[in-house]
Amino acid sequence: MNETAFVDRRQADWNRLTFLCDKAEHSVRSLTPEEFEEFVDLYRRSSTDLATVRTRSKNLQLADFLNDLAGRAYATLYREPRGGFFHSIGVGLRLSAQTVRKCRWFVAASAGLFFGSALFTFVLMGIAPATQSYYISPFAKKAFDEWKKPFDERTPSESAMMTGFYLSNNPKTAVIAGAVSASTFGFGTAYLLYENGAILGALAKELQPYGKTTHLLIWVSPHGVPELSGVIMSGAAGFVLAWALILPGRKKRGVALRDAGRDAIILLTTGTLLMFVAAPIEGFFSFNPRVPDWAKVTVAVVSLAAWLAFWNGFGKDEPKTIEAPK
Questions:
Q1: Which of 239, 196, 195, 227 is nearest to 105 (CA)?
Q2: Helices (DSSP H) in the chain: which residue ranges?
Q3: CA 308 to CA 312: how far, in whole Å?
Q4: Distance CA 198, CA 204 (A)
Q5: Contact, 221 vs 183, CB < 8 A?
Q6: Which residues of 252-278 are buried (b: 16+ CB within 10 A; e: fewer)?
């Protein structure tokens, strides 16, 4: 085969196919109907050229070039169309719910540690009041004392400012709870869950003599449903990573950690987003004295029921959105 003549004869088509691949980089819908028809024809010709070079030439550089070009054209032609914004939201929600169900035992362990530590601290402070100094630091004492007084009504600007504070501060708890796991084999995550649960239990016990424990639960519950769910999901992400490190099975720990990382990052992202959901509720609704207690309880109950239904049922009868890497 005369390679020079072959390349001279076919170069224009290859250049044209490269141009059309560039144009269709994001979607083949970028091509006009005429360009799409031309694209398919050029792809077939380039595939034939590749077969010709492989069988009749020893020019490896030319073969590699045509292989890359044909492969790129194939990927462009058969790539799954990108969905719109709402389709992407649906995919993300489905993937989140599927991952929570898949990792339900890690979620249960995280929830058990958090609420168990809250209950343990509440009971322990009642049995041994001397432990109060351990669980309630001077800084926490000032915050606890604020709960013993009536809350002042916030102006809209104050509510917006507090929402901004919650948006910037609360997600850090979720990220840290999941992030410290790999470096501490899960003990860092367990400690953070215990510490956060203990603070809630200590506050509930501190308010009991003032008859405000129920008040605490009512005022925390509207934003507490998504916020505490976020803490629990983030803790579960940490435990997923810790499990892969402690019991990797037949895999090397690095491989097991990589494989577990996909589920962990989905849980961690879910936990962080739940914190963002909770922030405006906490800023504008939960601590608003003008909102009656029955409304706060109603919102909390409806929210809890809706989230439980979502975690347990959303996307249950559909195939997994993304298969885990092998």
A1: 239
A2: 3-23, 33-56, 60-78, 85-102, 104-127, 132-135, 138-147, 156-179, 181-184, 187-207, 213-246, 253-281, 293-313
A3: 6
A4: 10
A5: no
A6: eeeebbebbbbbbebbbbbbbbbbbbb
Of the CA atoms within 13 Å of residue 158, those in its CB half-sphere come to 7
Find the angle CA(41)-CA(46)-CA(50) to the nearest 5 degrees: 150
Is residue 79 scored above 80 in pLDDT? no
CB atoms closer than 10 angstroms to residue 119? 13
Cβ atoms of residues 31 and 20 within 8 Å: yes
Entry pTM? 0.72
Instruction: Note the helical H segments in 79-149.
Output: 85-102, 104-127, 132-135, 138-147
pLDDT tens for 101-149 read 999 999 999 999 999 999 999 999 999 988 888 888 888 888 888 888 8
Give the count of beta carbons closer than 10 Å to the beta carbon of residue 54: 15
User: Residues, the chain, total?
Assistant: 326
- Return the axis-axis angle of helices 138-147 and 187-207, rounded to nearest 10°: 50
Q: How many CA atoms within 13 Å lie on the side-chain side of 231?
A: 23
Give me the residue spans of the domains in the chain: 3-78, 87-313
Tokens 């709960």, located at residue: 147
Q: Measure the CA–CA gap between 165 and 278, rounded to whole angstroms.
A: 12
